[in-house]
Amino acid sequence: MKSMKKMMLCSICIFTVFLCAACGKKEDGDQLEGNLGDIMSGLYENADLSEDFRAGMASFETYELTEDIEISILGTDEIEYTEGVVSMPRMSSVAYQCVLLRVDEDQVDTVKQQLKDNADLNKWVCVSAETMLIESRGNVILSVMGENDTVYALSDVFQKY
Asked: How far is CA 126 from the centre of its chain?
């Protein structure tokens, strides 16, 4: 009987050790891996975008965010990021831009606030963006300005990506 109790106690201890190890494991399921340009393409491919918007995408360009264009895109050159891409029309009467930034994980909230504080929905000549959303998944931040339907469609697919 004592041998059976010892065996049960050992089994419970071993099970507890495995349970604790499993619970303490950090999941990276919310991290977006891969090149931000590829992620941007995936957002466009999977978003429920209007036919008019998709037709206008022929004039869009997605390119790396560099120091030369930070102020015009982000509204400031004070944002620290490790990778950034922007997608927007080359020439258009549509007020739209979509930015993906990869930042240090401990800076996500700070960068989101900086983007919000420096955003200008009226930065285009003669047109304004209807809305702006700034969201994050892990250490990747989505900042998108444009028409409501477009912004929310991209946000939805970003959250599911």
From this structure: 29
